[in-house]
Design goal:
Layout lengths: L2 H6 L6 E4 L1 H14 L24 H8 L2 H4 L7 H5 L1 H6 L4 E5 L5 H8 L3 E6 L2 H13 L5 E4 L12 E6 L8 H14 E13 L9 E4 L2 E3 L11 E4 L1 H7 L3 E10 L6 E9 L2
Parallel strand pairs: 2-3, 2-5, 3-4, 5-6, 6-9
Antiparallel strand pairs: 1-10, 6-11, 7-8, 8-9, 10-11
Helix pairs in contact: 3-8
């Protein structure tokens, strides 16, 4: 049995699925209300829109990646990433971007499956660990160290963008700018798989609200001492911009109450 097959046989976690009919109803409501659209890519990186001091969680992860015991839980790709392979192959995808690669579990997995992989993370330690693994496996993955807004890549460079557990590290403006960057670097019909913190998450509302729906828990020993942004489904739909939602699921990640939205979208134009 392949590694991919073993991953897909994991016990399914509890989830809440948003149906296509519900997505359509929310979309019509957003149009009717004329909600403010997401930040255009032309503004990404400007001080008036993005404050780099809000995306600081990588500092905690950089510390964790230096500890082998901390890395042990982040070796295997997520089932949602494995499941998307069929769609990627069907669309003849070749160039993929892993945003927030960490120690490279998804970058390495995708490279093994034959994709040309670029990977980005703000943690120097994580990227160094990932580079060593790729070199040992003889994989030509293009790693870069840096923040996830703005992306250091040209327009329409990728067939697939993955951002697992990363784009909510900041405030709402940071997240909107990141979604705009995803749209910018995706080719037409390109796929986007990401997670965002759900308002059903047990940590929503805890600590100090430093921006709308953005919380910091002072003294937290993990990354919750850094800004985390939480969203509901209608806000996510509004953030998509030029992206079209294909599926949206509110999923618990291992621990009870650790609810994350799992988003699959495509660029339609």
């Amino acid at each position: 049995m392949s590694a991919a097959a073993r991953i897909l046989q994991r016990e399914r976690r509890s989830s809440f699925l948003v149906t296509s009919a519900t997505l359509l109803r929310w979309h019509r409501e957003l149009v009717k209300r004329k909600w403010t659209p997401r930040v255009p890519s032309s503004l990404v990186g400007q001080d008036s829109v993005i404050e780099p001091g809000f995306s600081t969680a990588y500092q905690d992860w950089d510390r964790r990646w230096a500890d082998e015991s901390e890395r042990s839980d982040w070796r295997e790709p997520e089932p949602a990433v494995v499941e998307l392979l069929t769609r990627l192959w069907a669309r003849q995808a070749s160039h993929v971007l892993d945003v927030g690669t960490g120690i490279g579990r998804h970058a390495l997995f995708l490279a093994r499956e034959g994709f040309f992989v670029s990977a980005l993370d703000a943690s120097p330690t994580g990227v160094e660990v990932a580079r060593k693994q790729a070199k040992a496996a003889g994989m030509a993955i293009h790693f870069r160290i840096g923040p996830f807004v703005p992306f250091p890549y040209p327009d329409a460079a990728f067939d697939f963008v993955l951002a697992w557990n990363v784009l909510y590290h900041g405030d709402g403006r940071t997240a909107r700018a990141a979604f705009a960057e995803v749209s910018r670097v995706l080719r037409p019909s390109g796929l986007f798989l990401a997670t965002m913190l759900s308002k059903r998450n047990a940590y929503f509302g805890r600590g100090q609200e430093i921006r709308p729906d953005t919380f910091v828990i002072e003294g937290d020993e993990g990354d919750k001492s850094h800004p985390h942004f939480y969203v509901d489904a209608s806000t996510l739909l509004d953030m998509l911009g030029d992206l079209s939602m294909l599926s949206l699921t509110d999923l618990e990640q291992g621990q009870p109450g650790s609810c994350h939205w799992v988003i699959v979208a495509e660029r339609t134009s």
